[in-house]
Records
---
Amino acid sequence: MDNTKREHFGSHLGVLLAMAGGAIGLGNMWRFPYLVGKNGGAAFILVYLIFVVFLCLPILISEYAIGRRTQKNAFGAFRALSKNKNWSLIGVFAVLAAVCVLSFYCVVGGWSVKYLVESLKFNMPQLDSSYFNGFISSSISPVIYTLIFLGMTGGVLVLGIQNGIERFSKVMMLVLCVLIVLIAVRSVTLPGSSEGIKYLFVPDLNALDGKAVLEALGQSFFSLSIGCGTVLTYGSYVNKNENIIASSLKVAMFDTAFAMIAGVAIIPAVFAIAYMHGATPEIGAGPGLVFITLPSVFNEMPMGGFVAVLFFATLLIAAITSAISLMETFVTYEIEEWKVSRKKAVWIAFAICSVLGIFCSLSQGVLSGVKLFGQNIFDFFDKLSANVLMTGGGLLLVLFVGWSMKKEDYIDELSNGHTNNVPLWLLSTIYYLVKFVAPVTIVVVALANFIL
Ligand code: PHE
């Protein structure tokens, strides 16, 4: 394919919001708040921030740089940059990881569609745990919602980079910010919410153990979407005059800020309502926090029906912009490597993810007996992508940049050919973090994960 004909993002803001849209998702809205609560509040946030700055940010910058330098899909990018063709396997890894993440992500995306529909019907009072469990384990309804979610994702992608991804992300990210701030304000103005704020921000160092550190690392990878080719793919649509380091920093800050605000939107509300009933706040409910605990919170809160609509709309928008980045990674790969049209590529991606998504959805019910390595299909995809493919992809990526790519080429890309005034010490620091610190940290954490 002729690179000059390749579509690009149209503006600096477009790049930023599309990338932030890919990063901000279900990971920020339910996983982060719940992990913070479980692992010692502010202490966990501190560890998380250290990982974001010293490990994930350099990886994010590197993945972005590889995409921008080659202007190719994840597979083509590594093939173009390496003399040894084995390195292009990293690209295969990345594309596979993106498909795997999307396969279970679209199921939760489907749940969000369903809950938005129910909240629009002001049906919150019925949405208790047995409703949720009954819904996700049934065979037809969650499958249909999963397909609707994938259909919406594919619908945006058919429109292309500027008209689809960029335009959608620009509008939706702004809506997203307004909504989450509104919900956060509602949450902290509930009587009794201050306990929740304390829980969230006053560090309890005792709650911070080795496992919490591992969880902070996993969460930072997942939340910033690194190691599965989505950042690389978006990077390949970025113009040569964009400052990679500055925009990566902004994306990381945006993602982290959003996670914090989501925490403020959720946790204090859960505390406030629990205290109203003299009950203990059920903060550690994982996925149930959003789909079981929160509906009961909305039921009790003044203007709760309205807040529920806002919340599930926010959740859906966040999930879709992430799903878009995942599907686009596969779609670009198909367009450039299989030489198919965008429309056809989207259909193929939709078909493959639908089949996998249906299996993941059914594994909550009729197929719950089917085990892969001791886990149901949904959990298997979840673990496989986060713990193996994304972390493995991240490791291979840093090994590639640090040990196969020429340092001058890397620095040249980050500094836009030494024209963007990024100081040399900063460029070298990033390079050495990628070359030494990142691989060692990933291996140590992976081993610890394995042993613990
Ligand atoms: N970062 C997204 C989230 O927080 C998930 C994601 C992972 C998206 C990997 C793309 C790639 O929900």
Note: The CA atoms of residues 187 and 269 lie 5 Å apart.
---
Amino acid sequence: MGTVPETLRWIGDEAGHCELIEQTLLPSRLEYLSVEDLETMRDAILRLAVRGAPAIGIAAAYGIVLGLRGLADTAFRDDIDRAFAHARERLASARPTAVNLFAALDRMEERLHRDGDGSPRDVRRSLLQEALAIHEEDRAMCDALGREGAALVEDGDRLLTHCNAGALATGGRGTALAVMYTAHEQGKTISVWVDETRPLLQGARLTAWELGRAGVPATLICDGAAASLMAAGRVDRVFTGADRIARNGDAANKIGTYGVAALAKVHGIPFYVVAPSTTFDLSLASGDLIPIEERPSDEVTQILGRPAAPKGQAAYNPAFDVTPASLITGLVTEKGVVTPVTEEGILQLLSRE
Ligand code: MRU
């Protein structure tokens, strides 16, 4: 099996910086962006240079450390709290849908409450430890997701995925794609239909690239091709990621996922959502409460920066949709699989140690 990319990493000690793959350049160029301050990190999240729910959370945690870098050694606790609150607000306002961002910021704030009375340098060191722990835990969760999900894959399966829920979207091997990597490593013969995922082509640019590097057989399709492939009996199972899952199991993911799930239901094909426990938002009773990011309309009227519609064409660009729990065969988490998807099942599984 080939290698999966390292999406982001911290370089050095608490005075160090973050490096992340500039994903807007893929698949043409693999380049790391050096992120040395809070605003560059916010911008990277906004521009989707770093994207995917778990990776956004990790990037935000590192962004907090960067946000406290400018504090003088003589700064008081009040100054530290102010700098933290500012960094938190800037990062939290970057993208609204992925709950991992807010979960990571909450964890960083808890750490500040615990260790915030030290010198600015000690506080930064402690916050970096927390960010590194968030990153490491995500890596381990990806491995566990791969194991849990691969048990659902049968030899010879033709799988389908939407958007990119791979290494590029996490601190490890991905969520939905970790399932494919693991099944492939286990010696199962699998192939993957990759939805191109308009408007920003995460499937074509990122998922096809990742699977290709790892040696997993993958075939790119237009988003509109999934229906006829399913009707022709050429899809055995669907695995996608999620950006936020409500208490009842409704799951927000990249725009178009809901359509894929509805099609899978019509054709009797199992549809699985693969996500770590950090993607669940138990404070929301159902998916209609999940905030859906609306992105600039030029992402729809252009393709890869070139006009694809008449000048001045109106366009609407919701970045995510919500798949109702009733369409989801199972939620694959690092703690096990919830199937059928019910609130009781989710609460029971997530309360497991
Ligand atoms: O807009 P993006 O590229 O951040 O959207 C990413 C997705 O929708 C992923 O499927 C989701 O974050 C899960 S990533 C493991």
Note: The first strand starts at residue 8 and ends at 11.
---
Amino acid sequence: MEGIVVKSTGSWIIVRLEDGSKLDCKLKGQFRIHGIRHTNPVAIGDRVKVEGVKGGDHGVITHIRPRENYIIRKATKLSKASHIIAANLDHAYLVATLAQPRTSTGFIDRFLVTAAAYFIPAGIIFNKTDLYDRDLMKTLDELTGIYENAGYRCFRTSAIFGVGTDEIRERLKSRVSLFAGHSGAGKSALIRAIDPSLNLRIGEMSKAHQKGMHTTTFAEMYEIAGNGFIVDTPGIKEFGLIDLDKTEIHRCFPEMDRLLPLCQYKNCTHTHEPGCAVKSGIESGSVSLLRYNSYLSILNDS
Ligand code: GDP
Ligand code: ZN
């Protein structure tokens, strides 16, 4: 049987089989040995082969298909090992807002860099637009201009009024889409607006977590009505940029990457080099200073 991993609790891996049913699975022993670098050898979104256990009510994962992509974070703050948050993602969306609690552009840019580093097309959903006054609307227009110029789709929603949510639902069809966001931006409300039947299941999940006093929250994949999957990432604030070299960060800013061939040096980092097309772009206004400053700040931290 073939299926897709929708949840992993450590001891059990839950696989959604092709007929839509779910099966609790264990991993065949040998995989554990190969999974040293990552703390989890099998991740949400993995496409797997499963064998039923004779007379048993669970399955065994015998094969994991090669991943098209994946997104990771450090297993723990100090550890070198990484934890795969999810694999085989078609899109990654950041649920952001300019109303309370306002999402900083620094946070948005870090998310976008992470997605770019793992070759996952990303978009930004600006939520709670019902609360924006005229000034915030102006800011929203400006940010939309900056991010769309960079190559990112921007969406506007009011999750509680159901505004803009049809468009999101349409985009999710037949795809696996990761949803991330600061707590309070409205990720749950948005998911609820997209598919009301999901609300119950997510609610049950968090209650179960509270009971078990788990401090770590796991990402989980939900099937949405009308085809498609959402990977919800509760409590995951930082996505790991651990595979990214300092000299590669600018490649994750598409508007800068496009200018690289015009820089005097082909390994230009757009910082101190003469004849830099990105720096000229900032002067002429084709590259946003906001984005460039985010780039410098990420460069500094890594
Ligand atoms: P999450 O932490 O990102 O999952 O955020 P929630 O979905 O729990 O929403 C946080 C708070 O913001 C709740 O009180 C929601 O009712 C509110 N909220 C979510 N979306 C909107 C919106 O579009 N407009 C307004 N005015 N409030 C919203
Ligand atoms: Zn340059």
Note: Residues 246-301 form a domain with the Ribonucleotide Reductase Protein R1; domain 1 fold (CATH 1.10.40.50).
